[in-house]
Design a protein that fits this description.
The protein is an all-alpha fold. It contains one helix and no strands. It is rod-shaped and about 155 Å long.
Length: about 110
């Protein structure tokens, strides 16, 4: 068996330490690249999903606008109906007054 001298042992320790640090640096760099690539892929997938959701929400907003327009048309129709009902109420009030006047004439001043 051969024995190492102290300078040879320190040289081997230095070479081994340098090799370990360089391997750790390479592995860290590769790991960082892989993580960045995965995050980039995830970002693209999420952007695509969000764009799809935005398109769906825009479609729903368009549908709600159509429904709002229909409700506005229905509200306009109800306003017309309310105006007609008010007109009928005014006419009935007029008829009621006329009937009361006629009733008073007939029952208060009988001509018999």
């Amino acid at each position: 068996m051969t024995e190492l001298t102290e300078p040879q042992a320190w040289t081997l320790i230095g070479v081994f330490t340098a090799a370990m640090f360089s391997m750790m640096g390479l592995i860290t760099g590769m790991f960082t690249r892989v993580v960045r690539a995965e995050i980039g892929g995830l970002r693209e997938a999420m952007d695509a999903k969000f764009e799809g959701m935005d398109a769906r929400f825009q479609g729903i907003d368009a549908r709600f606008e159509v429904i709002d327009a229909k409700f506005q048309g229905i509200d306009a129709r109800f306003e017309v109906i309310d105006a007609k009902i008010d007109s009928v109420h005014r006419r009935l009030d007029g008829i009621d007054r006329d009937v009361q006047v006629l009733t008073r004439r007939v029952f208060d001043h009988p001509t018999d």
